[in-house]
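Quick one: LysR family transcriptional regulator from Microbispora triticiradicis, structure tokens please.
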Amino acid sequence: MDDLETRELRYFVAVAEELHFGRAADRLGIAQPPLSRAIGQLERRLGVRLLDRNRRGVALTDAGRVLLREAGTALDAVAAAARRTRRAGDPKRPLVLASKAGASHELLQRLLDAFAREPGAVPVEVFLCEVGEQAGLLRDGRADVALVHRPYDDLAGFDTEDLHVEGQVAILPAAHPLASRDQLTMAEVRDVPDLPIARWPRLDGSYPDGPGPEVHTQSQLAQLVALGRTLLVIPASSRAWQWPEHVAVPVVDAPDVTTVIAWPPSSRSSAVASLVRCAARLRDTAPPISSARVRPAR
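--- reply ---
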């Protein structure tokens, strides 16, 4: 039998992540013997060994690693289905739009204003998140639609519409010598010994190698720049969160960034469709967004 129960998957994921039956049982709030029996029954039903057990502890087999990956996806999908079902059953619920805090501020403001003028428009709740979190919010059903950024964000599996293309700027401490420049190149910003580029987590949560500090929130990054500890290269419109202690200098050869509106392909929400149509009209008819390559006066 190929059917798997969500309970079995939750049990297996807990053991696979903890690599310890006792800790997994505590995490699940159950006793260890029934957990061990459940994993054994799961292995017999699948006909493969998922875990190697020995005196040194527990280790995943190749089959176990596959099930851990697939189980996580399946459990996320079940949770997302439950959230979307509950939300669909509430006719008064707002549309949830996820966006990275500080990013695409002018575009987001225009979109919200334009959509509010649409006949029959529903309220929009803006979910401001940290870097790279929009895709997860869409997949697990906490958001209906999101503004994401190519090539940096995860767009795999979503329906999308491109909205805006822009250049990038280096955010520097105002007192740094490079802050007086009219423009920079990527080679120049990568070669500043006293000001290493901040490192954001990759999609898998790991950090790229380098001397710069590991950051995961905008507020953390903003303070590190103000303290003269790091610099970063970001889309020009993300300067919305720029502090007085910062200066933005255009990086002329940085790759362009495209702001994209994304939504799950399974969505049947008329409100999502209406918001996407509104965004496309805004892209085609509105004046250019003022995020171009000009360093602000200081």
